[in-house]
Amino acid sequence: MSDLGMKNRIYLFVLLFAFSLFYFIYFLLRVNPALIYQQQEPVFFFTYPFFKEFLTYPGGIADFIGSFLSQFYYYPWAGAVVLTVICWFVSMNTKWLLEKISGKKINIVFYIIPALFALALHSQYNYLLASSSGFIFSLLFFNLYLLGRRLPVSGRSILLLLLGISLYYIAGGFLLMFVVLNLFYELLFSKNYPSLVINIILLLLPYVAQNFLFLISLKDAYLFLLSLDIELRTGILSVFLYALYPVLLITVYFLLKKQTVDEKKREKDSLLQFKNKILAPFVQGAIIVFVFLFVVLYSFNRITKRLNTIDYLARKGMWQDILHKHKNMEFSYLYETYETNRALYFTGQLLEGMFSYPQLWGTDGLCLPFTSTLLTPLHQSDLDFDLGYVNESLHWAYEAVSVCGETSWNLQRLAILHILKNENQSAKRCLGNLEKTLQFRRWAKHYSKLMENESLRYSDPVLKHIYPRIQTANFMNFDDVPVANLEQLFKLDPGNKMAFEYLMAHYLMNKELNKIRAKLEYFKKLKYPALPRHIQEALMIYQNLTGQKQLLNGYKYNRKLEARFSAFQQVMVRFKNNKNAAQNTLKQSFGDTYWYYVLYPPANPEKLNL
Amino acid sequence: MKSKKIIKVSSAALTIFVILTCSFNQSRPNIKDFTEINRLPVIYPDYTDTVFPPNIAPLNFKIKETGKQFFIKIYSNSGDPIEIVSADSKVKISLKNWKKLIAANRGQNVYMDIFSKGENDTWMKFATITNTVANENIDEYAVYRILNPAYHVWSDVGIYQRNLTNFKESVILHNNLLDKACVNCHSFHKNNPDEMMLHLRGGPGTALLLVQNGFKANINTTTDFNSSPGAYRDWHPDGDIIAFSVNKVHQFFHARGENRDVYDQASDIILYNIRSNMVTTCPQISLPDQMETYPMWSMDGKYLYFCRAPQPVTEKGEHFPYQTVFYELMRIPYHVETGSWGEIESVLPKSKTGGSITHPKISPDGKYILFCKCDYGNFSIYRPESDLYLLDLSTGEFRRLAMNSDRSDSYHSWSSNGRWFIFSSKREDGIIAKLYLSYFDTDGKAYKPVLLPQKDPSFYDTFIQTYNVPELVTGPVKIGPRMLRKLAYDRENAVDADLDPAVMSRDDSPDLSMPWQSAPN
User: Fold this and answer.
1) Whether ipTM exceeds 0.90
2) Cα–Cα nearest to B372, from B307, B443, B417
3) Domain boundary assignment for chain A
């Protein structure tokens, strides 16, 4: 090997290593695979029946591989490795493909760009590894076909047919990608027209499979795993990625055509070689950086990351982190508000500081509206669990199984709830499934053991808080009136502090100050050392409006708060009771108070189209 | 050099072969000395003291006793015993040997001896398990629905058929073929797999898919009389008429105990005539102040049995008083030739049962009605106290069957010979319904049921879905899922049922969005 060849190899190796390192860091730090896990909740059991299910439809193998690899998202570094390897496979398969077609070395730009699209797709949080696996299979199979490009026509036709059929079974809809690549290859480079007939036969394969072999819809027969829903960003990016390959083939075709006779003879030369050797790396680098910036800046889904992050923190019970993230935000999505309020409760600040955080969604931010719970039932199950409302938590956990499948979190929740309800057989079934997972088998074994020992159950940190809260009397649940359920829960169990605080928060938001006043005695019963700030703020308004004294049931107002209320009143006097004119001033000094919330109730964010 | 390589490869292959052979072919242990344990071994499913069909698939099970190895001997008066060695406590019986043994012992007891090898390599023998092989076969196929425990959302719902003589299960229709529609309420005429109907909700549209000896139809059974399509159903013995209930159903949740519950806000019964494509009814089975449901024809087709409860009157803002709704068993004479009705009569009033009757099913010999009874309402699968009861039509006496459990025992279906019934029961955990087969002798006694056997005895350990609406049929349902899918989407040839002109249109039917309003007289 010449020095130049060696230098080129080293240069290429360093470049690829740098890219791989960059992908790894990008996935680890910017995307965070744990957040992908959070969104997708991928299911995988190490059992034969689970595997067998994947054999019953075309694309099942890629789906199975995707499901398996997705488990590594749970561990961010492992997830980042998997995603980096996926991108590397995309690059390498593209490189091999183009080199085989052109018979020349291929400029790195050609095969880095598809990997950047793969990176962009996986930055969306909802793009499945099953689709990436299918995509890589389609490239790999096309490369295998190219290996046999020197076979006689009949041999090539048989190879194409066998590869196409196998690919369809393995990767489902990615057969289309394979066929498209093949058609372009045959038309532009190979001119092997009999293969076109085979391609047409392959295009009929999904139709035949749907009608005679597999119980799938025609749409799934052709498009499964292709992720072509163009209403989603993954759909648009997928179309770009798939369309890139015909473009690459056409580009290679024209580049080859433009080459001089001398250049054509020099097989080892790189295609799209820059004449200026010094500038070449810079130009290449600039192209890649430009595409990278375009793809990443356009594609990165900040909102999804934000929502997944709060979901992740809530699942881990990292309440302080949630509050820290949302301290000075002007706007908060419904689920963010919902989790922030849970965080406020768990840090003892719900009635002390809930109006320091955006409460744009009113009471929906405390208890999700019915339409939202149907979309993400586990969220509702979480709150019901916190409240000790075991039956409703179970209800929503089973809804979650219908919506998302037998995911580990759903099974965990079900197992715990069945243990709490003393439904051991059902708990064992959930634990039995969890014992077949990668991440939760130890957890499952712990609870399986705990089930055998009555005393351990009551000392378990998760269970012991819920046991005393379990309902001892029945009532009919109100699906779409959560406050009615809170009232019932608190009525049955006046020691249920969370139900009490949520009820008070509901009353505050609904401006039902009479109801707050009627329940003041419970602050004493629940041993509050002082009335929480927002309750005091509400009572100051109440007292001010009604002129009633002796409201505080033995508590006293905080002096600073009293002074603050005077200041608040003075601002209103200064602005001659003009709410609109006073808003900015009040927001600066009193934006975190109940007084401000009462004066300026939030507009419905849905109407604001945010 | 080459021969050395061949020898090396051959020895490696031989070693692998020997290891594999040893691990798979566990020979019968030589048990000379053993300690007898004077109790039955714990096995799952509990296949002890049952009566099982002579054509059933092997009753595979798991031994829930400690032991590092188990030896199982299954034997009877005739035929070769079956011997199984198991290291993992799973007992999988060879289909061929099982069939041979059972076929030779109809009406006889079948015994199972289970030996367990302890840590110190000593053997213990548990008391012998006895089961009985019935003389009469069960219908070869069971058709049922599998879905997640049902709440508001459904996603993965399918109707399946299972060959009871082996373990083969196949899909009749799954909602992944129907844009996630809900598929439900499959029903057969006289256990005949060629005469089937089922319902669809959502997806391609609400429809009744009807298949009858080659005739196929997609029917909309809603009319100006009934805004809801037909739900609970029963075919008239002549096969041309199907009686349906039309129900306004409401699901709700309890804070304690079984969390799910359902009540009907209103319901009536209609008849659908397949030949004339016409819906009809009569005032006695569609009274505005009564809720009629669960229709069932007598075996001679001369009576329509059904359940009925007064429609509660509620004030605005009040909860529906679901706990005060009790369904009684009624019947009304029907003349199929003239389509005329007789006078309605009470068969089992609440004063006699003290509860609420659901799912009445008449035995093929016409002598008995098997029904569910629960404390209130009509949704027995969600009522833990629901049990199966038997009404002797000749004496009017009814009794609770001894094979019930303390959890919901519910939907049931007779075999064509009347010697078996299949039912769904949540007896194991109260959450997931599983299917049980019970022998019913000529004296009206139902025996300890057999849980539907599975090839893998661990199957039920991790299976989170629930079985419901089991129906026994005499052979396989031949129409495939693709054909049913085609039928479901064939909107061009879908037909709207006509309303019998003699039946008043219910344009002025009560506004069901306000069920607390009293119904017009």
Assistant:
1) no
2) B307
3) 3-300
